[in-house]
């Protein structure tokens, strides 16, 4: 596939975002809420497709991973056992002059970068959102919005092991919302206080963890390539010892080259047996595994591929953005992978002539239960093609007056702009074949 831009233009993408209905500022009519975003009609479809592609890859296509959907609210003791109450914090400094608050580890000077004012001494700021369960705001009812989905998997280890009857190695996958009271969120949907994660906790026997860490790292990197991100815009970075979380033996990040620099898409960590042991000790519950083959009992190690849905969606979106010459003008195009595109098929009658309406509606009814479709009969066919290019629609179906006589329609492909006539009776099969084999 020919590409003209190395990566997307963020300013143009933001303009496209609101105009075409990808992402809106949350609470916009009231002035908005900082670093909080709402996914519009096209954005929600793109994000849903990213999640479905991930689920197909790590759950549906594998025999050793099952799914889970754990609650956002959990017992306070969960966070005591995991170390979040004690360790989940960032160093916070505040300017004594303008009162801006910053993460100490993200500033390069000893004075305020905004006004050069004096900074306070750093203090630890816990990133968890606190709330209260029940009608009385007292310490006994204090709970937290989860800062990660992983702990819901760990505390359900025994439940899944017994109900799914899995043997090691096996994994538990989950997609869900998490919340972190970030000191300095920003860069559009990259760093927000409310975000969605897609995580796997993959349980293995001690001694097999290093090999499984490398296996998952390779598989997850390949997933981003498969769905269209260019290899030049991806890299793998190993954490040095000073970066490692308190539970981690080894961690790698898959990073994307965003317009502002390299940023993490997904971390693949060897969490050892830390989490299961902590929950076993705190709860008094035996959380271990008995290996029938070796007749031994042990606490499994955990390999964790943990990615951000919003970050992955943004990266796929940015990498798909392109501008290519089209005569004397420029064609703006989102070259999404066909399975990620928010709209798969655009249905375009050549005109609003009432003679075309019955056939057009029949074709739409034929396709809409198989593919995400969008109907458009406004303005010239050329303008409509350009609108579909701009939102990344892989296929446009044009119904013209010849269609009434020969029972055929024109399929136009987004990337090549190639057009061909196809019998209406084979339309579903042709599109499915193109989706499967990427003609």
What does this structure look like?
By secondary structure, this protein is of the alpha+beta class. It folds into three domains: about 10-75 and about 130-315, BirA Bifunctional Protein, domain 2 (2-Layer Sandwich); about 90-125; about 345-435, Rossmann fold (3-Layer(aba) Sandwich). About 30% of the residues lie in helices and about 30% in strands. It has 13 helices and 23 strands. The chain has helices at about 10-20, 40-60, 75-80, 85, 150-155, 155-165, 210-225, 275-285, 310-320, 355-365, 380-390, 400-405, 425-435, and strands spanning about 25, 35-40, 65, 90-95, 100-105, 125, 130, 140-145, 170-180, 195-205, 235-240, 250-260, 260-270, 290, 295-300, 300-310, 320-325, 330-335, 345-350, 375, 395-400, 410-415, 420-425. It has a seven-stranded mixed β-sheet, with helices on both faces. α10 links the parallel β19 (about 345-350) and β20 (about 375). The longest helix is centred in the N-terminal third of the chain and has 20 residues, at about 40-60. It is globular. The model has no long low-confidence stretch (mean pLDDT about 90).
């Amino acid at each position: 596939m020919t590409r003209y831009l190395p990566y997307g233009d963020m300013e143009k993408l933001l303009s496209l975002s609101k105009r075409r209905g990808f992402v809106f500022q949350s609470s916009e009519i009231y002035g908005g809420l900082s670093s909080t975003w709402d996914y519009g009609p096209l954005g929600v479809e793109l994000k849903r497709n990213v999640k479905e592609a991930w689920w197909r890859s790590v759950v549906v296509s594998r025999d050793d991973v099952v799914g889970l959907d754990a609650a956002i609210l959990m017992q306070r003791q969960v966070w005591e056992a995991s170390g979040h109450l004690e360790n989940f914090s960032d160093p916070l400094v505040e300017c004594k002059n303008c009162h801006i608050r910053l993460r100490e580890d993200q500033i390069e000077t000893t004075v305020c970068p905004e006004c050069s004012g004096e900074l306070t001494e750093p203090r630890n700021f816990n990133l968890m959102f606190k709330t209260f369960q029940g009608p009385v705001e007292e310490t006994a009812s204090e709970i937290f919005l989860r800062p990660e989905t992983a702990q819901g998997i760990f505390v359900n280890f025994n439940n899944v092991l017994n109900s799914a009857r899995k043997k090691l190695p096996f994994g538990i996958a989950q997609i869900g919302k998490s919340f972190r009271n970030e000191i300095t969120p920003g860069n559009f949907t990259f760093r927000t206080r409310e975000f969605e994660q897609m995580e796997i906790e993959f349980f293995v026997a001690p001694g097999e963890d290093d090999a499984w860490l490398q296996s998952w790292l390779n598989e997850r990197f390949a997933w981003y390539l498969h769905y269209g991100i260019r290899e030049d815009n991806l890299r793998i970075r190993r954490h040095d010892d000073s970066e490692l979380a308190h539970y981690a033996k080894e961690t790698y990040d898959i990073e994307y080259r965003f317009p502002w620099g390299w940023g993490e898409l997904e971390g693949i960590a060897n969490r050892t047996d830390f989490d299961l042991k902590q929950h076993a000790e705190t709860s008094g519950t035996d959380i271990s595994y008995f290996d029938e083959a070796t007749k031994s009992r042990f606490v499994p190690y955990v390999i964790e591929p943990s990615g951000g849905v919003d970050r992955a969606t943004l990266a796929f979106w940015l990498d798909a953005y392109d501008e290519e010459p089209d005569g004397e003008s420029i064609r703006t195009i989102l070259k999404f992978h066909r399975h990620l595109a928010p709209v798969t098929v655009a249905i375009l009658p050549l005109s609003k002539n009432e003679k075309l309406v019955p056939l057009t509606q029949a074709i739409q009814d034929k396709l809409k239960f198989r593919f995400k479709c969008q109907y458009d009969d406004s303005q010239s066919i050329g303008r409509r093609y350009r609108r579909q290019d701009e939102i990344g629609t892989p296929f446009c179906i044009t119904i013209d007056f010849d269609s009434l006589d020969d029972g055929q329609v024109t399929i136009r492909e987004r990337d090549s702009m190639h057009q061909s006539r196809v019998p209406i009776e084979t339309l579903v099969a042709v599109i499915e074949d193109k989706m499967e084999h990427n003609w």
